[in-house]
Amino acid sequence: MHVAFLGLGAIGAPMAARLAGRGPLTVWNRTGARASAFAERHAASAAATPREAVRGAEVVLTCLSTSADVEGLLDGPEGLLAGLRAGSLLLDCTSGDPATSRRIAARLGARGIAFADAPVSGGTNGAEAGTLTVMVGADAATFARARPVLEAFGRRIEHVGPVGAGDALKAVNNALLAANILAVGEGLAALVKAGVAPRTALDVLNASSGRSFVSEVLVPERVLTGAWPRTFRLALLAKDAGIATALLADTGVAAPVLERVHATLAEALAELGASADYLDPIRRTEQQAGVEIRG
């Protein structure tokens, strides 16, 4: 099967690497040097344009920052629509927004091209290990076609509903992740000021009902150690939280908690800058509280 992969960012590159060696693979990235370097490492082909990347491909995967980025690749003489053929399948692994995905699906469907939104969770480590969770929004037939491809980098692949449902679930997931990051940072800062050792606090929390992925994995590995690796931009987490709050508004569900989460992320992003990592709000809380959460 000839596969094209567009978007070789922090998570896209290891996902594409899991597809290498399974058949012809063509890659494209806005920064052409990155695509060329990837192709050299993984015996793939690097394309200069989206049209060139998808020419002849049976399956195309996109993994960009936003749905708008994907939609922006459709048109023009070197765009996706100029190269995609009827009967092909486009799997968008972007953490996108449901409305744009539905719009893309309609345009592609008019040309006989199947579409699924298939955002992933599990981070770069999960992408490298092939253990990502993939949330697929599509009709049943498209999901059946997509699954064998997604299994290259996904361990849990769930058909969660029609087009747009995958984006919706991923946005809510990341909004809940953000809520946990903010709450755990605030709680631990207060406990440190109250005289509780951070490691002790986490050990108790993680044996109790307040535990979460943030307290069990992220804080011990990245905050207590002072490592603070840069793995996921705060700007993208804020974008996902915004998609989640828009979803709640569209469905008529009141969102006082998630709206506050989104607003707090926006405040942190404005203060910390576009390059900030998604755990930097905890560092911001430390600075505001005048403590360090270390163990």
State Rg: 20 Å
Q: What is the total number of structural domains? A: 2
Overall structural class, as computed from helix and strand content, comes to alpha/beta
Low-confidence stretches: none
SSE succession: EHEHEHEHHEHEEHEHEHHHHHH
Strand content: 5-15%
Distinct helical segment count: 14
Adjacency order of strands in the biggest sheet: 3-2-1-4-5-6
Number of strands: 9
Q: Mind summarizing the main beta sheet? A: 6 strands, parallel
CATH architecture of the largest domain: 3-Layer(aba) Sandwich
Tell me, rounded to a whole number, the average pLDDT. 97
Distance between the amino and carboxyl termini: 49 Å
CATH topology of the largest domain: Rossmann fold
CATH class category of the largest domain: Alpha Beta
Shape, please?
Answer: globular
The CATH superfamily of the largest domain is identified as NAD(P)-binding Rossmann-like Domain
The amount of helix comes to 40-55%
Describe what this molecule looks like in 3D.
This protein is of the alpha/beta class and about 300 residues long. It folds into two domains: about 5-160, Rossmann fold (3-Layer(aba) Sandwich), CATH 3.40.50; about 170-290, N-(1-d-carboxylethyl)-l-norvaline Dehydrogenase, domain 2 (Orthogonal Bundle). The protein is built from 14 helices and nine strands. It has helices at about 10-20, 30-40, 50-55, 65-70, 80-85, 100-110, 125-130, 140-150, 165-195, 200-205, 215-225, 235-250, 255-270, 280-290; strands at about 5, 25-30, 45, 60, 90, 115, 120, 130-135, 155-160. A six-stranded parallel sheet has the order 3-2-1-4-5-6, with helices on both faces. The chain is globular, with a radius of gyration of 20 Å. The mean pLDDT is about 95.
